[in-house]
Amino acid sequence: MIHDGFMNEALAEARKGQSEGGVPIGAVLVKDEEIVARGRNRRVQSGSSVLHAEIDCLRQAGPVAACRGAILYTTLMPCLLCAGAAVQMGISRVVAGESETLSGERWLLEAYGIEVEDLDLEECKVLMRTFIAQNRDLWDEELGLSSSGKDSLKDL
């Protein structure tokens, strides 16, 4: 399957989010070879701790029926929140731009029968590496890390 066009659209969403002062992660939802929804990480822009790119994209798609069986293209392997949403919405396949920056929750997606493909794209890695180098505090916040550098989930 050729992914270039769809992943390029997800990258465009990531860049748009970055231009708005947000974290450069983008997503598109594809059904029957057409983009049915787009999203970008709007956590910073909206002040919402849960408005990740995949969540924004799924929210734009509308009801579960619009998502069921669709392919979710995202520039970064989905985190626990976004992987859970993909499972809940009946996504059949996730195509990630990369998983080096964040390994994500591939195991969860696959445990629920979602096919996962990691394109390992240098363009996605460079986008994230550059952003993190310039915005470490914002990235740590994105990951839920406390100011002390400890993973807040492990502190529970």
Notes on the structure:
With 156 residues, the chain is of the alpha/beta class. It has 8 helices and 5 strands. The protein has a 5-stranded mixed beta sheet. β3, α5 (80-89) and β4 form a beta-alpha-beta unit. α3 packs parallel to α5 (80-89) and α7 packs across α8 (136-142). The chain is globular and about 40 Å long.
Beta strand %: 15-25%
* Main sheet makeup: 5 strands, mixed
Q: Mean pLDDT score, rounded? A: 90
- What is the count of β-strands? 5
The gyration radius over C-alpha positions equals 14 Å
Q: Kindly name the structural category.
A: alpha/beta
Strand ordering within the main sheet: 2-1-3-4-5
Helix-strand topology string? HEEHHHEHEHEHH
Low-confidence stretches: 148-156
Oligomer designation: single chain
Shape: globular
Summarize this entry quickly:
This protein has 156 residues and is of the alpha/beta class. It has helices spanning 4-19, 43-46, 53-61, 64-67, 80-89, 106-111, 122-134, 136-142; strands at 26-31, 34-40, 71-74, 93-96, 115-118.
